[in-house]
Amino acid sequence: MLLEKLPAVQSLAPEEKWLLIDELWRDLARQLESSPADAQTVALLEARFAEYLANPETTGSPADEAFARLAERKRQWK
Question: Is the pTM for the entire model greater than 0.70?
Answer without folding.
Answer: no
